[in-house]
């Protein structure tokens, strides 16, 4: 019975309900009933065999005396008992064969479940491998996109590098031109290089005037030269003594020489302005040739310097702003 339940459990679990106690009780009562019926049938079969033998014996007798004189006949060969025993042996053999078949069937079912479990695991691994493959393909696509971006950036950097190299070549040419200008000006000037960068050059000029005035009486002229990416430059003089000049790079040499020439021409004027700055608050505007200084808290004076002063002997014109008017004589007396 247990083997039958095991086979049914392996085939279809719905056929058995392990939680049902009523079915188990009914099955037990049915088993007892079948066992009793089988025992009763065996007894009845034996009695039937005896009755059949008696009837056969009586049919062969002719009189009652013959029944008393005849010996007991032997058991006939191939009688019902022998047939019953043969059927019993056949039933036992069939039961054993059935049990063997059930055992093999159970083993095959177990193998099927094992293979099913293995197949489920393989399917899960296949799905996992498929997801990994999709992730790898996505990563590969991202890497290819990043590689393309890197190629574009590399091409852009190569173009920028070429442009920077050309710009560096231009800067080197500008440096060579500036060095040539500085070399050409060394006959009349003392030049000190203060600093140099990729976009700015700062130099200090100390003139050698032809007049008896010593060059140590005037502070050196500091020039700052800057250039931009659009091939233009800006030239500025230190302390506001000279106006800034800008233009194209090809005009840098001429502008530098012009500033040097103007500076040499205004050497005495600049020396005088420098001397006055030690005593007064003075602002000098070279483009307007205008000198502005604070005479007192209420008076601001302006001087317009004529061309050629002081070498040409020109006289500056004066004006004042404040509460008390003043003229050139007042300004000269103050100075």
UniProtKB/TrEMBL annotation:
<protein>
    <submittedName>
        <fullName>Uncharacterized protein</fullName>
    </submittedName>
</protein>
<feature type="region of interest" description="Disordered">
    <location>
        <begin position="312"/>
        <end position="335"/>
    </location>
</feature>
<feature type="compositionally biased region" description="Gly residues">
    <location>
        <begin position="312"/>
        <end position="321"/>
    </location>
</feature>
<keyword id="KW-0175">Coiled coil</keyword>
<feature type="coiled-coil region">
    <location>
        <begin position="95"/>
        <end position="160"/>
    </location>
</feature>
């Amino acid at each position: 019975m247990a083997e039958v339940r095991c086979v049914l459990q392996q085939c279809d679990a719905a056929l058995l309900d392990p939680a049902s106690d009523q079915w188990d009780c009914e099955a037990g009562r049915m088993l007892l009933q079948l066992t009793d019926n089988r025992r009763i049938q065996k007894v009845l079969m034996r009695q039937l065999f005896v009755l059949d033998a008696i009837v056969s014996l009586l049919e062969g007798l002719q009189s009652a005396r013959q029944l008393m004189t005849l010996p007991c006949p032997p058991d006939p060969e191939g009688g019902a008992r022998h047939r019953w025993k043969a059927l019993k042996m056949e039933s036992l053999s069939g039961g054993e064969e059935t049990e063997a078949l059930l055992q093999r069937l159970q083993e095959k079912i177990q193998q099927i479940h094992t293979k099913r479990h293995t197949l489920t695991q393989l399917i899960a691994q296949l799905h996992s491998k498929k997801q990994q493959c999709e992730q790898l393909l996505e990563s590969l696509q991202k890497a290819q996109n990043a590689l393309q971006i890197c190629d574009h950036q590399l091409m852009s950097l190569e173009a920028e590098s070429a442009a920077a190299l050309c710009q560096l070549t231009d800067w080197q040419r500008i440096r060579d031109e500036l060095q040539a200008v500085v070399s050409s000006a060394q006959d009349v000037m003392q030049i000190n290089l203060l600093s140099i960068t990729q976009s700015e050059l700062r130099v200090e000029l100390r003139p050698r005037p032809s007049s008896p005035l010593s060059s140590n009486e005037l502070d050196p002229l500091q020039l700052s030269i800057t250039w931009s990416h659009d091939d233009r430059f800006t030239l500025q003089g230190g302390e506001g003594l000279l106006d800034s000049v800008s233009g194209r790079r090809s005009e840098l040499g001429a502008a530098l020489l012009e500033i040097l020439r103007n500076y040499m021409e205004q050497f005495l004027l600049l020396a005088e302005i420098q001397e006055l700055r030690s005593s007064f608050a003075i602002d000098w505007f070279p483009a307007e040739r205008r000198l502005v200084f604070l005479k007192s808290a209420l008076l601001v004076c302006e001087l317009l310097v004529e061309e050629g002063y002081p070498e040409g002997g020109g006289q500056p014109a004066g004006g004042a702003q404040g509460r008390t008017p003043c003229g050139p004589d007042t300004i000269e007396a103050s100075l």
